[in-house]
Structure formats: C-alpha cells, structure tokens
Amino acid sequence: MTKDQLVEFAWGLANSKHPFLWVIRPDLVIGEAAILPPEFTNETADRGMISGWCLQEKVLCHSSTGVMDTMCGGVRIISWPFFGDQQTNCWNACVHWGFGTEIDKNVKRDEVEKMLRELMESEKGKEMKERAMEWKKSAEDSIKPGGSSYMNLDKVIQEVLLQKPTTS
Questions:
Q1: What pLDDT, on a 0 to 100 scale, did the predictor assign at position 63?
Q2: CATH number (domain holding residue 16)
C-alpha cells in the first residue's frame, strides 16, 4: 500500500472509536517503512494495539491462512483484496457466505470509518455476525466424528495411507 493509504486506514480506524488490534508488517508500505502519524498513536492509545506480527489463529479464534480461519472463528471481515486468491476469498466472504464486506481500492478514511461502524454497530453487521457464527458451527460439526471433513480425512487415510479402498 502507499503511505497515503496507510494514513487513510489509520484515521478511519481511529475515527470509528472501536478497539482494535492492527498488525502492520514493516514492509507494508511501498518503498518505505510503515510509519503512522504520532497523532494517530496518541488518539488510539487507550483502545488500540499495533504489532508487526501476531499468531493469527489466536486472534481470530478469541481459529490464519486466510478467510477460512475467519470463518472457523466466527469473525466478520472487511476485505481489501489485491493478489492471489484474495479476490476469490473476498467474493466468497462477501457474496456467497455473507460475513464480509469489501472496501474500495481508493481507500478513504470516511469509508473505512463507515464500514467499521456498519460491521460493528448496524443491523447488517449483526446479521453478518450471525452468518459468521453459523459457518463456525458448520465447520465445528464437520470435524466431529461422522462429520463431512472427519469422514473425508478418514477416507484419505484408508485409501491413500493404508491403501484400503472404502465402500463409500
């Protein structure tokens, strides 16, 4: 991202007045270090934590390799996809699964604030949280004995590792 985009995200986050954890890699900003304005740090000191790294699995399951971990954790997301499978994951989270929203490529602080407030405070945000929790329950059910993921893994073990063809 550009330095301007970083600042826009920062002030949108600050203006939302919600508590946050923001993981910012040192190489996040194109061509320079990711440095936030001191005013932002002062404004958010009592409700924000900024880190260069975290165990995403621990944060999202308060189960990251991406949107699947947010789903398993029952977490709503705001997506800003750029490359790889991010566009597909964003589409699935926002359109197919219904627990995410996508921010415009031309990020502006007012839009960031509006989206955060919608996600955290609005009826639409509550509905997205309900869908996220439904997907979480579905994921949990699938790994229990008799669940679809449990049975598929057992089938792989039987057919590939133990070389015993199953009848199903």
A1: 44
A2: 3.40.50.2000
Q: Which residue has the tokens 């029952």?
A: 74
168 residues of the chain, pLDDT tens digit each: 999 999 999 999 999 999 998 888 888 888 887 889 999 999 999 999 998 887 766 666 644 446 667 777 888 989 999 888 889 989 999 999 999 999 988 899 999 999 999 999 999 999 999 999 999 999 899 999 999 999 999 999 988 888 866 666
What's the number of domains the chain is made of? Answer: 1
Asked whether residue 21 is assigned to any structural domain, the reply reads: yes
Q: Which residues touch 47 (CB under 8 Å, ≥6 apart)? A: 17, 18, 19, 20
Does 140 reside within a domain? no
Residue 79 pairs in a beta bridge with: 102
Neighbours of 42 (CB within 10 A): 10
Q: Quickly count helices (H) and strands (E) in the chain.
A: 8, 4
Domain that holds residue 66: 3-129
When computed from its CA atoms, the radius of gyration of the chain, rounded to whole angstroms, is 19
- What length is written for the chain? 168
Q: Residue 98's closest CA among 61, 71, 60?
A: 71
